[in-house]
Amino acid sequence: MKVEIVTPVGVKFSGDAGGVMAPGVLGDMGLLPGHQPMLAALRTGEAVVSIPGQEPLHLVIDGGYAHVVGGDQVTITTELCEAWQEIDAAAAQALLDTASAALAATKEDVSTMAWQVKKHDVDLATTRLRVVASKP
Amino acid sequence: MPSLKAIRRRIASVKSTGKITRAMKLVAAAKLRRAQERLVQMRPYALRVGDMIAELGRGTESEAHPLLAQRPPKRTLLLILTSDRGLAGAFNSNVNKAAFAWLRDHKDQRDHIELHIVGKKGRDYFKARKIDVGHVYTDVLNQVTLERAGGIGRDVGAAFIDGHFDEVYVVYNVFRSAIMQNVKMERLLPVMASEGHESPDQAAPTADTLFEPTKAAVLDALLPMHLNVQIYRCLLESVASEMGARMTSMDAATKNAGELLARITLAYNRARQSIITTELMEITSGAEALKG
């Protein structure tokens, strides 16, 4: 299947793949050839592109959408997409520490924007560390 | 005839102006290259967001989301994209004139037309013509980011949803090349689902498309995103156009400075020569007089 990952700063990945794992808002989903057409919202998390004969590609995805067209084309549109080469592990760890401390100390309700922003930072940092750890 | 000293001063001034315009041209050329790269990089993104909007638009009524609401156009918002700095050829005045002409032609057909302006040049133009200006955003074009575009998008979207406006247009420069920029006026809101670009390879039948979590939720998030992406694209087009216009006009200015310099230098040499000739005549005629 043809997979394309597009961000505002360029096409991050474009090519043939055996399948994609994408972080959907309702849970991770595996997209394989022949999938029903779908438009799904994504959360902040890790996407894995399986490429035949190569190491799978682990990527940080920060929200956006997965669009499946005609069963053999997946387009992931997201504002941020990073591979392990672009991630500074120390900075990600620092972000995780400050963000989780802020999240633990916060008195705001789970439904508020402020809480969601902090949770987002924690998710982003956690995902970055996981992607760095997946370095082949 | 001006004195030698005056001409010398003029030569120095033209020379330094030429240096400044040359430097501005080089800076604009470097910035233009970067702006063009960003424009090319973001195009696939805008295209894909358009694809998804088109997908959602199939069979969606205009009541499905407040950003799709079609109302009779009574109250209009014009978003005008200009730069903060001048010396960019006709970049700012083209946009301002187009917006001004539209305003003049449509004033009678609308109850209210409000201007929201990006850039000091647009603000000053309409202030000078005693036209009320709503929001003014400055320092945008020198640092265009998706967040900044999102801020403008949120303001515009909220005003539309609250019913302050029935339609929103953007007036901006489309970048064609360094020597060509076209003023374009586009409708931002209400979003027309059918306006989404659809690439031919994606025209598969999608009647049974799944939406996750729900169609309404996807629409809710995607429409504001589409608006922000459109504004972001217009801002990037404007930056590239501004730099292109500045580069071209500064190139012309540098050439003119060179020509002017050649002319003044000629005048200076003539004046100097004629003084020397006069002095020589005086000396020789003095010597002749002594001989006699």
Characterize the structure shown.
- The complex is a heterodimer of chains A (136) and B (292).
- Chain A has 136 residues and is an alpha+beta fold.
- Chain A has helices at residues 89-105, 113-133; strands at residues 2-7, 10-16, 19-24, 27-31, 38-50, 57-69, 73-77, 81-82.
- Chain A folds into 2 domains: 2-82, Sandwich (ATP Synthase, domain 1), CATH 2.60.15.10; 87-133.
- Chain A contains 2 helices and 8 strands; from the N terminus they run E-E-E-E-E-E-E-E-H-H.
- The mean pLDDT of chain A is 90.
- By secondary structure, chain B is of the alpha/beta class.
- Chain B has one domain (22-248): ATP synthase, F1 complex, gamma subunit (Pyruvate Kinase, Chain: A, domain 1).
- In chain B, strands 3-2-1-4-5 form a 5-stranded mixed beta sheet, with helices on both faces.
- In chain B, helix 1 runs antiparallel to helix 5, helix 2 packs across helix 3 and helix 4 (146-161) packs across helix 5 (215-291).
- Chain B is elongated.
- The model of chain B is unreliable at 195-206 (pLDDT under 50).
- Classes of the chains: A alpha+beta (136), B alpha/beta (292).
- The A-B interface holds A 4, 6-11, 24-26, 29, 36-41, 65, 67, 69-70, 73, 75, 77, 79 and B 38, 41-42, 44-45, 48-49, 51-52, 55-56, 146, 201-202, 204, 206, 208-213, 217-218, 221-222, 229, 232.
- Strand 5 of chain A pairs parallel with strand 6 (210-212) of chain B.
